[in-house]
Design a protein that fits this description.
With 291 residues, this protein is mainly α. Helix content is 71%, strand content 3%. Strands 1-2 form a two-stranded antiparallel sheet. Strand 1 and strand 2 form a beta hairpin. It starts with a helix and ends with a helix.
């Protein structure tokens, strides 16, 4: 009987090791290795040498990579709060006593998450392209000229796609927390004369804080992993280069320049940045709760 839990956990542990821990360990090892090729295409031999922190230095000396980090930080500072607010409002509206067909609307709002990111970006690109987009045509008809794929706007066009895709996912996280609130609390609040807004502000929002924190941490991590949307839009937007986001920069280093050591170092730096940002957010929130 004592072995039963371990037997049940074995499939998960095996998959977790080979699909998560092993790739991370391999990336860390590769980040300290420099591959040297003899000959134009390495036909005379390939040797691997210890690079120390040389790959990390090369990654941080890449101005485009550093700029991409700043770009996604700006992206996250605007997009993540907007998405969490939208998700929270939708969840609260769907869980009110007067909500009609809540199951239908939950499924409807969650549906964009079921669309693969590449397909979603292709669909939205038709709404961004001049000559194809009815939005652009209507804006031009009323005298508004907007280039959704231009240098100053394309980042927020990507933010719109990400918000459309993941708001429903975060909404379900919050809905699950709302459903765990005992009904007795709502009954007591209504007996005291509390209305819908008072219940939302005084009862629901404080009790769903763990769900909000979880959704925010997931969103912070996802921001630094931004890849599919800018890569697809790159074909229609000259403002997006091969180093537009940190993940694109690592992909570019690995598969366009065959510099896997620098790409691994960039990947490790992205992971560290995600950890630091998530840890800092949690510490700040916990500190406010203690105060």
């Amino acid at each position: 009987m004592r072995r039963a839990p371990w037997l049940l956990l074995t499939p998960f542990v095996v998959v977790f090791f080979f699909a998560f821990l092993l790739p991370i360990a391999y990336a860390v090892v590769q980040s300290f290795v420099r591959v040297e090729r003899q000959g134009l295409f390495g036909e005379e031999g390939i040797t691997s040498t210890f690079a120390g922190v040389g790959n990390y230095a090369a990654a941080l000396e890449n101005a485009e990579f550093v700029a991409s980090i700043g770009r996604v930080l700006l992206f996250g500072a605007v997009q993540v709060p907007v998405m969490i607010v939208f998700a929270t409002v939708l969840a609260l509206l769907l869980e009110t006593a007067s909500a009609r067909w809540p199951a239908f609307f939950r499924a409807t709002y969650f549906m964009p998450y079921g669309v693969p990111g590449v397909i979603a970006t292709i669909l939205w690109s038709f709404l961004y392209l001049p000559g194809l987009s009815p939005v652009v045509d209507v804006a031009e008809a009323v005298g508004i000229s907007i280039d959704f794929l231009g240098p100053g706007v394309v980042l927020w066009s990507i933010a719109n796609i990400v918000t459309w895709t993941y708001t429903g996912y975060n909404m379900l996280i919050i809905v699950a927390q709302l459903k765990s609130i005992p009904g007795d609390i709502y009954e007591a609040a209504r007996m005291d004369g509390a209305g819908t807004l008072r219940i939302a502000g005084s009862i629901q929002l404080p009790l769903i804080r763990p769900a909000l924190m979880l959704a925010t941490v997931f969103s912070i991590i996802g921001t630094l992993q931004l890849f599919a949307e800018p890569q697809v839009l790159q074909s229609v937007s000259p403002a997006i280069n091969n180093d537009y986001t940190p993940n694109l920069s690592a992909y570019n280093s690995a598969f366009n320049y065959n510099d896997y050591g620098v790409a691994a170092a960039q990947s490790v730096l992205i992971a560290l940045a995600a950890f630091v940002l998530s840890f800092t957010f949690l510490r700040l929130v916990n500190r406010k709760e203690k105060l």
